[in-house]
Amino acid sequence: MPVTVLLVDDEPLVRAGLRAVLEAQPDIEVVGEAADGAAVIPLVRQLRPDVVAMDVRMPLLDGIEATRAVLRTVAEPPKILVVTTFENDEYVYEALRAGADGFLLKRARPAEIVHAVRLVAEGESLLFPASVRQLAAEYGEGGGNRAARAVMERAQLTEREAEVLRLMARGLSNAEIAERLVVGTETVKSHVSAVLAKLGARDRTQAVIAAYESGFVAPG
């Protein structure tokens, strides 16, 4: 089954460019387009895309609020890939905090765009971990987020779960974590699932953001 994608951007040329790049791949299908975040929820419910590639800044409803709305109102929400002009942008970090699974630069090369969509759809690795770390260092309150610290304290991660979370924050995939810890991939998946459940995180991106904001992992 192909990865299905909904494109949301107020610039028709951007949507056309993304569509051309993605539809050149046999395993990716663009199922719809929208010009503003306000149109996302009905289209998500109608089309059931695997991934929403969404501009972070739009005139009526931006990507941050659209992300929050989708995650709040859609029972089985898609993965959300924020599309942005600037990577070191507080809007991008706020979108990640709101629940986006990753971000993509509008100037990215076609191969990077395809890779980002596939990686976010699979959900087994962190997209652009160095950039997420940089954003967390600049906008993540330096580990001083009380709510994030409280969540981390309540989680009571085991030693192995804590080790897995630190490796997730470095951007390692499940297979890479398994190799590092000399365990099976299924064992790593179980640990990742336990970490997400204990932190109340939707995916590994949200778990890593919580790890940075609580000070459990230093972003530097």
From TrEMBL:
SMART domains tied to this protein: HTH_LUXR, REC
HTH luxR-type domain segment(s): 150-215
PTM sites of type 4-aspartylphosphate: 55
Keywords: DNA-binding, Phosphoprotein, Transcription, Transcription regulation
Keyword Transcription assigned: yes
Response regulatory domain sequence ranges: 4-121
Domain of life from the UniProt record: Bacteria
Xref: InterPro entries: CheY-like_superfamily, NreC/VraR/RcsB-like_REC, Sig_transdc_resp-reg_C-effctor, Sig_transdc_resp-reg_receiver, Tscrpt_reg_LuxR_C, WalR-like
Protein name: Response regulator transcription factor
Organism this protein belongs to: Streptomyces justiciae
